[in-house]
Amino acid sequence: MEETGLQARIGQVLGVYSDPRRDPRGHTVSVLYDVTPVGGTVRGGDDAADARWFTRKELRTLDLAFDHGRIVREQLARRRDRRPFSSGRRAPRKGARSPLAKRGGAPG
């Protein structure tokens, strides 16, 4: 919510990235979660200058910092034959509850 303006339901862990060489500023660990938007409006906030939705095609061509491009490509490849990638979904209308929220959520 702080960085994107979205309220989201956090699902399963998709990956943990901890290569000490991945960030020249120092060793960082990133945990990637499957997330379903459930409210809010996409906007940049706090540290984020901008926030928006990307298509899979756009994600493959972005010039991302550190190893984030590799992480995105890895996750897209894993989901090729599965349900749509979370960030490719449209955000619900402000105040609207998603069909998943009405059912109490979906498996990760």
Any overview of this molecule?
The protein is built from three helices and two strands, in the order E-E-H-H-H. By secondary structure, the chain is α+β, with helices and mostly antiparallel strands. It has one domain. Strands 1-2 form a two-stranded antiparallel ribbon. The longest helix has 11 residues, at 68-78. The protein is globular and about 35 Å long. Residues 84-94 and 96-108 have low confidence and may be disordered.
Helix-strand layout with pairing:
Blueprint: E1 6-17, E2 30-40, H1 56-61, H2 68-78, H3 99-102
Antiparallel strand pairs: 1-2
The low-confidence parts are 84-94, 96-108
Considering DSSP H and I runs of 4 or more, what fraction of the residues is helical?
10-25%
Distance between the termini: 20 Å
- What class would the helix/strand composition place it in? alpha+beta
Tell me about the largest β-sheet. 2 strands, antiparallel
The coarse overall form would be globular
The number of E-state strands comes to: 2
Number of domains: 1
Strand line-up across the major sheet: 1-2
> What percent of residues are in strands?
15-25%
**Number of helices, where a helix is a run of at least 4 consecutive DSSP H or I residues:** 3
Q: Rounded to an integer, what's the Rg over CA atoms?
A: 15 Å
